[in-house]
Amino acid sequence: GPSASKCYDTHWILCYRSLFLHRADQYKVNLHPGCIPTWKKDEITISATTFRGNLTAYNCTTTFNNVLEDNVQYYFRIDCGNPLKYNFYENPVTIRIKGLPDAPSLTTPKDPVVEEGTPVELGCSAPSYCDTHPPTVTWTPALGLSTQLQQDDTVTSTLTFNASHLHHGNNVSCTAAYYIPSGKKTVTSTRYQLSILSNEYYSYSPALGSGGGTPFVTSGEGSITGVKVWEQPGNHITGFQLRYGTRWDRAVGRVVHAPLRLDLFEGETITQVSGKYRSANYIYQLIFVTSRGRSLITGVPFEISFNFYPEHAEAELRLLSGRFDSNGIRSLGAHWGVFKEATGYGNNTT
């Protein structure tokens, strides 16, 4: 009988794989290439279908075009012009319709921050609901070479390029376009923000703390000019936020009460991040030290100490990465580099 149905958009071409099963061995001799397969709804024959495959091998594929009705049952009929005429009422297919296809999924580098000059590979996988009309997957912007492969019910595109500091903070979008018989198309997309630092003064203070929770990496244009930290009084750090230039990046973690805040002077940079953490759960203290010797001290001095600083005297704090959950910051690492103005490109991170 027909396989179980999937969910499809109202304007997509629909594919169903059907295995023809005999009701009795004596009908095998009546099956021939001239047999007429059809699909019916109630007693109405569905004309907007296309059949492929080998019916005499008991396997065929049916394409339903321009399905507009939701939650409708269809059944298969075979007519060989001889005693073999049968309606498969007991094996109906139910077609469900949804508004949009699933968004493509991305495969990104394991390290959220990439060093300049490093080869970067991004993967984008989009569901293919019909093998005769797979989606077209594209990347915006086209930073390098992309390849596309269709396998089973998935189309995968791989984008490969060399990281440049000019890419830092840019969004890369993966778009899947599903074409329909009318010539229109349904489009879904997923985007990823690149975090790339120059290798000239770049160094990384590896993350400390728990490996659980949701990964994060801060991002922004220009040097860090402000810091906000939220803490659970007498307990751990719940969240923080960095300002790059004049714009605040998104807050990381849980925002509670009023934050503790440090606004940097012009030309002042963050040159040290230290504090306390418990390896089983949260960051308990965060201290930001600036190039002018000023500091923002938050949290409580409990548990294990850590001290992050750049390997190069010219470098400043550029990014923080790690993991968080609904209660607070679980792990933290620091990325150091130098901010430069790139002529012709506006502000860029190096």
Taking all Cα atoms into account, the compactness measure Rg is: 29 Å
For the termini, the CA-CA separation is: 61 Å
- By CATH reckoning, the class of the largest domain would read Mainly Beta
The second-level CATH architecture of the largest domain is Aligned Prism
Question: Which blocks of ≥5 consecutive residues have pLDDT under 50?
Answer: 1-22, 342-350
Task: Report strand %.
Answer: over 45%
CATH superfamily assignment of the largest domain? Answer: Jacalin-like lectin domain
Number of domains: 3
Shape: elongated
Largest sheet: 6 strands, mixed
Separate helix tally: 0
- Binned, the helix content reads under 10%
Structural class: mainly beta
Mean pLDDT: 83
CATH T-level fold name of the largest domain: Vitelline Membrane Outer Layer Protein I, subunit A
The counted number of beta strands is 33
List keywords for this structure.
350 residues, mainly beta, Immunoglobulin-like, Vitelline Membrane Outer Layer Protein I, subunit A, six-stranded mixed beta sheet, five-stranded antiparallel beta sheet, 33 strands, disordered N terminus
